[in-house]
Design goal:
This protein has 3 domains: 101 residues, Acid Proteases (Cathepsin D, subunit A, domain 1, Beta Barrel); 90 residues, Deoxyuridine triphosphatase (dUTPase) (Deoxyuridine 5'-Triphosphate Nucleotidohydrolase, Chain A), CATH 2.70.40; 30 residues, no CATH class. It is built from 4 helices and 18 strands. GO terms for molecular function: aspartic-type endopeptidase activity.
């Protein structure tokens, strides 16, 4: 099972449902409509209560049953709230007053990221750029800046372009631009994932002189290439 802090519900796959041999009659019909991270509809077969065991502690968890291939299931907000679960990313544990679970990270903790989803459906006219609002779905500790990284779809793959940008990790909403350079209008659905955000390792201060630029570069062990040094001096002379 995967831990998904961006999921509103706990999900199990139809394959897992069959493997644990629960009767089909146990599935209760639900009117809940679910969407994937990219905004597509997710077919829901029903909801049932599944017995889960953690270190000898057994709990009953309500789960929605659906068809997907990436995992056998996802722990969502319902699981976290019911069991008062918190995530210790430093030690790699899922913690509850009743149990502790050692997590197996798919990525290093230094590259923990959150997802950015559109808060509303947007219409982007042809040959235009608009500003849209996104919601950061994830949890970060501390007051730090983050780097908003567009998905491959928004790097020209679908003829839409979105720039990288720095955002405040403490904010739940961010504003960014999307460019449509084509001759056809585009529509992006509400809740579609457009980017990810991960903590920025270091943000250099804005430099106003050549010496300050070189000083900032020395902090990271980098050196400004000679051809850029010449260009920098030329630009500076134009402003003096």
């Amino acid at each position: 099972m995967l831990v998904d802090t961006g999921s509103d519900v706990t999900l199990i796959s139809s394959e897992l449902y069959k493997d644990i041999r629960l009767r089909a009659s146990i599935l209760k019909r639900v009117s809940t409509k679910l969407t994937t991270a990219d905004g597509d509809s997710l077919e829901v077969f029903g909801m049932t209560s599944v017995p889960l065991c953690f270190g000898g502690v057994s709990i009953d968890q309500k789960c929605h049953c659906s068809k997907f291939r990436r995992s056998v299931g996802y722990f969502g907000h319902g699981f976290f709230g019911k069991n008062r679960v918190s995530i210790d990313t430093a030690e790699g544990f899922l913690m509850s007053p009743n149990f502790e679970i050692k997590l197996h990270n798919q990525v290093s903790t230094s590259r923990v990221c959150a997802r950015v989803h559109l808060t509303e459906t947007v219409h982007i006219p042809a040959n235009s750029e608009i500003f849209v609002e996104g919601e950061i779905r994830g949890h970060f500790t501390g007051n730090q800046d983050g780097c908003l990284e567009p998905l491959e779809t928004f790097k020209g793959g679908s003829h839409l372009l979105m720039p990288k940008s720095l955002v405040k990790m403490t904010e739940s909403k961010v504003v960014f631009s999307i460019l449509n350079p084509t001759h056809e209008s585009r529509i992006l659905k509400k809740n579609i994932q457009v980017a990810s955000v991960q903590p920025a390792e270091q943000v250099l201060a804005v430099a106003t002189s050549e010496s300050k630029i070189e000083q900032n570069l020395s902090v990271t062990g980098n050196k400004l290439p000679e051809h850029l040094v010449r260009s920098l001096r030329t630009v500076q002379k134009g402003y003096l």
